[in-house]
Design goal:
By secondary structure, the chain is an alpha/beta fold. The chain folds into three domains: about 280 residues, 2-enoyl-CoA Hydratase, Chain A, domain 1 (Alpha-Beta Complex); about 180 residues, Rossmann fold (3-Layer(aba) Sandwich), CATH 3.40.50.720; about 210 residues, N-(1-d-carboxylethyl)-l-norvaline Dehydrogenase, domain 2 (Orthogonal Bundle), CATH 1.10.1040.50. The chain is built from 31 helices and 20 strands. An eight-stranded mixed sheet has the order 13-12-11-14-15-16-17-18, sandwiched between helices. The chain has a six-stranded mixed sheet with strand order 1-2-3-5-7-10, sandwiched between helices. It has a four-stranded mixed sheet with strand order 4-6-8-9. β19 and β20 form a beta hairpin. α12 runs antiparallel to α13 and α15 packs across α16. The protein is globular, with a radius of gyration of 28 Å. The two termini are about 20 Å apart. In the N-terminal section; belongs to the enoyl-CoA hydratase/isomerase family.
């Protein structure tokens, strides 16, 4: 039994939810049946005056419906029936002959939020774990237990759309402001507040009426939402915003918007029926299955320690240092300070240290602009950063992260010098994007403490950190670094020590392939548009400008040295950087013009450069359609991803896909690079690669693992990652 029912002498029935043998409460099929039985019995009990929902789990009210059950849905009718079953049970709460109260002590999302919405009243804890919302569209579905119907009626149309469409969950204070909850309580005095609130509901009719009155629409809602023209404007603007943000690739938020617009003036029962049909349409799509798969992968990664030995306890890392105060160094220092960890920011000159401070402050100002932090908190956090040009205080550190120029000799010198100043237990990490960790550790006194910790730029926005052990890195160092990355709010993924590691090794060939297409006759904007239409956040040339053409060329050169002919740097790429000295955004011009206070625009000087280069190299110009552009750019990445699996750079296909998603913005709706290959068909991929190799060379020759899986009718996702996940 997952519910413990008690009824006191005052007629207060309490359903205490405690999902057996799980860390969370979820509304699976069996739990819903049990809830239905309780609700049916309670409705007939004339002594009950109030029903209270509480959770026995700390920090969790209800985490939603069982995602495994949604994942397994195959047909529209099945989707309709499953949602209808849950929807009808929650609707029973709304139709009870007495009021109901949801006491939200923690996460209250998805189906949990819909249960709370069906209640007469809601109160929420001020604990930071207490959040509420309807994030279903992030899984490719829409609220199907009544959320599309009840939330707009409760908090207004605009506010509801601003929660449902971007899949937002919000803390108690904002929920109270939006009138989504009726009160917020101090979690340290929870029982007293809850009991007092219940007593007032039962004994003071004016108190209950006051709560209802507070939910009245404000003037803005009345002006816009209570007239047809205003509503039409709201829905039109919402649709435009969705199109701009999703490029039409994600059907769920559009379906949620369509359902909410259709049901706005309907009676509840009719509206619930429309919601069911909307849910059924999106729950069976490949996009929903892909997004759910990514959810399971993300949950599994949260539990990863980076090692297979459970007896090893990660060290506590409190105090750190960053060596090199460039953009990356300043960003990493900001990250430490933002998580209340002390960090020393070292460089050889104070001017450089000042620039690191500027980067950290810039990130805080961006947070302030988005109302994520207050000025006094910025001052407090910045005090966690101590700039220095020497090694004073390094004997008290637990980790030092090197972020100097991408040059092996320079890195070795800095690392050796730093280790001599650190205590014996301290971890020494490198933020290198492509250089060998094993080689860096060769001359160190404690190579077991050396590890790669590759953050992505910009540090404040990119969630991934590649963790790269060298040959002599100890399991203790790996586990401690993985734990630190999680404490810093990042998703760490352990990868093998090879040139480019995982993400850059797969990404750079795509940038190089785009340059090859360009020199053969392609058009910069057409190539960028084709890749953006495929779903990547930006085309290869926009990305090259953003990262820095010099950085991209440098990494590409390292990959060519390591992997030979198949990663030979495009001649045009070299010409653009070496001869033309274009750097991209940092210098104001690359493939595009980057001028302050102006949108980026194509750099027409590229046309002259292309004409000269093609003539000099005797290149006959060809035309490329978007399909060929996508095949060459994306399949070269698929092929390299398969090689990474084949070589053991990473063992788990789902983790590889998540790394590409978080590190490059590979489109989530496609499920990841290898999921895309599975969905397209591995034999089809092999055939296309073989065809491309006959025209463009050996770099397209399909990897042996890809050939083997295609011949055996296998896929990369045969072993489902969700089997690893025991509590969603």
């Amino acid at each position: 039994m997952n519910f413990n029912l008690s009824i006191n002498d005052a007629g207060v029935a309490t359903l205490l939810f405690d999902f057996q043998n799980e860390k969370i409460n979820k509304l699976d099929g069996n739990t819903l049946i049990e809830l239905q039985q309780h609700l049916t019995a309670l409705a007939k009990d004339g002594n009950v005056k109030l029903l209270v929902f509480e959770s026995a789990k700390q920090g969790i009210f209800i985490a939603g419906a069982d995602i495994n059950e949604i994942k397994d849905i195959t047909g529209k009718q099945e989707a309709y029936e499953k949602a209808r079953f849950g929807q009808q049970i929650l609707h029973q709460i709304a139709k009870l002959p007495f009021p109901s109260l949801a006491v939200i002590n923690g996460a209250c999302v998805g189906g949990g939020c819909e249960l709370a919405l069906a209640c007469s009243y809601r109160i929420i804890s001020d604990d930071k774990k207490a959040v509420i919302g309807l994030p279903e569209v992030s899984l490719g579905i829409i609220p199907g237990f009544g959320g599309c119907v009840r939330l707009p009626k409760l908090i207004g149309l605009q506010a509801a759309l601003q929660l449902i469409l971007p899949a937002k969950v919000i803390p108690g204070k904002k929920a109270l402001r939006l009138k989504l909850v009726d009160a917020i309580y101090n979690h340290t005095l929870a029982r007293d507040f809850i009991d007092t609130f219940i007593d007032k509901l039962l004994t003071t009719p004016a108190f209950a009426q006051q709560l209802i009155t507070k939910r009245a629409k404000n003037l803005n809602q009345k002006l816009l939402e209570d007239n047809p023209l205003g509503r039409k404007l709201i829905f039109k603007k919402a649709h435009q915003n969705l199109q701009q943000k999703t490029k039409g690739h994600y059907p769920a938020p559009f379906k949620a918007l369509e359902v909410i617009e259709k049901i706005h003036e309907m009676e509840v029962e009719d509206a619930l029926e429309v919601e069911l049909h909307g849910f059924a349409e999106v729950a069976i799509t490949d996009i929903s299955k892909n997004l759910i798969q990514l959810f399971f992968t993300n949950e599994a990664l949260k539990k990863e320690t980076g090692i297979n030995d459970d007896s090893i306890v990660p060290a506590v890392v409190n105090n750190g240092a960053v060596l090199g105060a460039g953009v990356m160094g300043g960003g990493i220092a900001w990250l430490f300070s933002n998580k209340n960890k002390n960090v020393r920011l070292k460089d050889i000159e104070w001017d450089a240290v000042a620039k690191g401070y500027q980067t950290a402050n810039l990130y805080y100002q961006q947070m302030k602009k988005r109302r994520k932090i207050k000025p006094n908190q910025i001052r407090y956090n910045m005090n966690h950063i101590a700039g220095c040009v020497n090694y004073n205080g390094f004997k008290q550190l637990d980790i030092a992260i090197e972020a100097v120029v991408e040059n092996m000799a320079v890195k070795k010198m800095v690392l050796a010098e730093a280790q001599s100043k650190l205590p014996e237990h301290a971890i020494l990490a490198s933020n290198t994007s492509s250089l060998s960790i094993t080689e860096m550790a060769n001359d160190l006194e404690r190579p077991e403490n050396m590890i790669g910790m590759h953050f992505f730029n910009p540090v404040n926005r990119m969630p991934l950190v590649e963790i790269i052990p060298g040959e002599k890195t100890s399991p203790q160092t790996i586990a401690s670094t993985v734990k630190l990355a999680k404490q810093l709010g990042k998703t760490p993924i352990v990868v093998g020590d090879c040139a480019g590691f995982l993400v850059n090794r797969i990404l750079i060939p795509m940038l190089n392939e785009a340059a090859l297409i360009l020199q053969e006759g392609g058009v910069v904007t057409e190539i960028d548009d084709a890749i953006a239409q495929f779903g990547l956040p930006m085309g290869p040339f926009v990305l090259a400008d953003e990262v820095g053409i010099d950085v991209g060329f440098h990494v590409a050169t390292i990959l060519e040295e390591a992997y030979g002919e198949r990663m030979k740097v495009a001649g045009l790429f070299k010409h653009i950087f070496v001869e033309e000295k274009l750097l991209g955004k940092k210098s104001g011009a690359g493939f595009y013009k980057h001028e302050k206070k102006s949108p980026i625009r194509y750099n027409k000087n590229i046309d002259a450069i292309l004409t000269f280069y093609r003539a000099d190299q005797n290149i006959s110009v060809k035309e490329f359609d978007s399909k060929m552009i996508v095949d060459r750019c994306i399949l070269v990445m698929v092929n390299e991803a398969v090689r990474c699996l084949q070589e053991g750079v990473i063992d788990n296909p789902a983790y590889l896909d998540m790394a590409m998603l978080m590190g490059t913005g590979f489109p989530a709706f496609r499920g990841g690079l290898l999921k895309y290959a599975d969905n397209r068909g591995l034999q089809s991929i092999c055939d296309k690669l073989t065809e491309l190799s006959q025209t463009y060379g050996e770099r397209f020759a399909p990897a042996q693992l890809l050939v083997d899986k295609a011949q055996n009718g296998q896929t990369f996702y045969e072993a489902n990652i969700e089997e690893v996940v025991t509590d969603e």
